[in-house]
Amino acid sequence: MRLFRLTKIVTVGLRFGLDRMVLDADSSGRLARIWQILFFWRTFPEPRAVRLRKALESLGPIFVKFGQMLSTRRDLLPPDLADELALLQDRVPPFPTAQALDLLEGFYGKPIDEVFRDFERTPVASASVAQVHLARLPDGTEVAVKVLRPGIDRVIEHDLALLEAAAMLLEKIWPEGRRLKPREVVAEFNKYLHDELDLMREAANCSQLRRNFKDSALLIVPEVYWDWCGSRVMVMERMHGVPISQTPALLAQGNDLKALSREGVEIFFTQVFRDGFFHADMHPGNIFVHRDGRYIALDFGIMGTLNEVDKSYLAQNFLAFFQRDYKRVAMAHIEAGWVPAKTRVDEFEAAIRTVCEPIFDKPLKDISFGKTLLRLFQTARRFEMEVQPQLVLLQKTLLNIEGLGRQLDPELDLWTTAKPFLERWMDERMGWRALVHGVKAEAPAWASTLPQLPRLVHNALADAGKQRTLHQQRLDKLAAGQRLQGRMLALIGVMAAALLGLELYRLFG
After folding, report:
1. Which of 17-21, 82-86, 330-334, 415-419 is the least confident region?
2. 355 labelled binding-site residue
3. Which residues contact 417 (CB under 8 A, 6 or more apart)?
4. Of 159, 281, 299, 310, catalytic
5. What 3-state DSSP class applies to 76?
6. Could you give the CA distance from residue 430 to residue 433 in angstroms, rounded to a whole number?
7. Which of 18, 54, 77, 445 is found 20 to 30 A from 212 (Cα to Cα)?
8. How far apart are CA 77 and CA 185, in angstroms?
9. 132 annotated as a binding-site residue
10. Is 129 annotated as a binding-site member?
11. Nearest Cα to 402, choosing from 440, 361, 443, 371?
12. Could you tell me the sign of the dihedral formed by the alpha carbons of 37, 43, 49, 50, in that order?
């Protein structure tokens, strides 16, 4: 079976000229010339990036997903490939409803009509890993039921094994292969896919995001119905809205597109700088707009997390960038430990200035945050920076948000929208508000500790007294030992002198 799959992959690769992409990297050109003679009848009028995208689409959903993941690694791929792979869509035919029913009835242990009041047999959405059916709970609540594809685990393991073999081969035969780290990329894809296969994990992500935006005037996140969820089934509140990509429908619904574009940016920066937990798959298919103007988020399989160091790095870099303080940018990298401490600040600063100065010849509204961050990553790699996975996810999401925002409002000035968030975050972490926040955070611990303080001080002093006593006893014992040793040495000296005197007396009488 694996041999047939491998044969298909090789055939598709040859049909779309993917072999040429590898051979073109040979600086001598000999292999490319020999290959051209062997396959003289082939011509490829389309660019290499288009051919790669079409090849992945021909190979099926797992390879499509691999291409989507690759498109986020702009720190590794040439821009033309990354841009084209970003166009990949998960257009997958649904699997038979009978299989979905078998899986659901096996999980619930009873017929589907005893679990749900209504269950629509025709799926409303289908992707490479799962499909969605609409239903009603026994109390009449409208829900969406997400079901994993039967046998998807086996398909994934099978194709991952082939990808790993291809990655190893690529490293050996392609001069650029080692720099692109194909085996590491496949390992990252492996983790990414297995995370998506656990729908309980996705449900937990959804629940956390909903809690973060409880009572929000900007974003609606569906409720999870845990009693109906499992690792292969997720049941959540059904959402009604218009896809963000359908601009005419949004206008017909009475939405203000300029306000929507600003609110989308506000939601993203709130997730990043307030919560450190953000939706990392915000393509148009996962974002709807409710009739009341609020955004609706769907599909929570891929989420990004940021710690305080990450957030500080981002805030300092964005603010320093737009103030053209490149030394501050360089220092932020070194302080975060993402470039070696031995890095010369002046050299790093000069490299950043060389890359970024041309950007600022444009109006602020035309500057791409995502591309600015990408250029920063590419420059930092020259100084031995290993790009952090969470920042790659963030950069990919930022590009999505920019694209959506400017689709709604071509005049969107992302900097003007984002700057207040960055400045407020910095102020809360470094100004007087940081002190107040710290006091509030520590107050519960102080409340429980303060009543115990006298006893703790007494115990500490008593322990210190005991330690001093023990220390003094050890010193006294050591001094006594030294005195005893001194007396023994004196006695030995007297005896030696006496013996010497006796020996002299015997010799000289």
Report:
1. 17-21
2. no
3. 262, 265, 266, 269
4. 281
5. coil
6. 8
7. 445
8. 11
9. yes
10. yes
11. 371
12. negative
Backbone angles phi, psi at 341, to 5 degrees: -65, -25
How far is the C-alpha of 102 from the C-alpha of 167, rounded, in Å? 37
Question: 130: annotated binding-site residue?
Answer: yes
In angstroms, the Cα distances linking 133 to 116, 130, 142, 144, 239 are 12, 10, 11, 6, 13
* Dist. CA 384–CA 363, nearest whole Å: 32
Q: Where are the beta strands (DSSP E) in 223-300?
A: 233-237, 242-243, 277-279, 287-289, 295-297
Tokens of 5: 């799959």
CA distance 68 to 134: 27
Residue 131, marked binder: yes
Residue holding tokens 């409803």? 97
CB-based contacts of 112, cutoff 8 Å, min separation 6: 101, 104, 105, 119
User: Look-up: residue for tokens 């430990």?
Assistant: 337
State pLDDT tens for residues 290-321.
999 999 999 998 888 888 888 877 777 777 87
Query: Phi, psi (5° rounding) for residue 232?
Result: -115, 0
In angstroms, the CA 87 to CA 57 distance is: 11
Q: How far apart are CA 147 and CA 124, in angstroms?
A: 12
Judge whether 83 counts as a catalytic residue.
no
Q: What average pLDDT does range 1-20 have in this prediction?
A: 72
State the pLDDT at residue 292: 92
SS3 category, 509: coil
448 among annotated binding-site residues? no
Alpha-carbon distances, residue 213 vs 138, 264, 271, 472 (angstroms): 28, 14, 9, 62
C-alpha to C-alpha distance for 413 and 72, rounded to whole angstroms: 24
Report how far residue 156's alpha carbon sits from residue 189's, in angstroms, rounded to the nearest whole number: 11
Question: How many angstroms from the chain centroid is the CA of residue 270?
Answer: 17
- 242 labelled binding-site residue: no
The closest alpha carbon to 383, from 347, 341, 339, belongs to 339
Which helix H or strand E contains 507, and what residues bound it? Answer: helix 453-508
The tally of CA atoms less than 13 A away on the side-chain side of residue 216 is 22
Over the stretch 419-454, which tens digit does the pLDDT of each residue have?
A: 777 777 777 766 555 555 555 655 565 566 667 667
Are the C-beta atoms of 81 and 74 separated by less than 8 Å? no
DSSP states along 449-488:
HGGGHHHHHHHHHHHHHHHHHHHHHHHHHHHHHHHHHHHH
Q: What is the pLDDT of residues 367-411, one digit of tens each?
A: 777 777 777 777 777 787 766 666 777 877 887 788 788 888 888
Query: Sign (positive/negative) of CA torsion 25, 30, 31, 37?
Result: positive
Q: How many alpha carbons lie under 13 Å from residue 28 in its C-beta half-sphere?
A: 5
Is residue 8 a known part of a binding site?
Answer: no
Distance CA 350, CA 371 (A): 19
CA dist 100 and 21 (Å) reads: 41
Element (H, E) at 130: strand 130-136
% helix, strand, coil for the chain, step of 5: 65, 10, 25
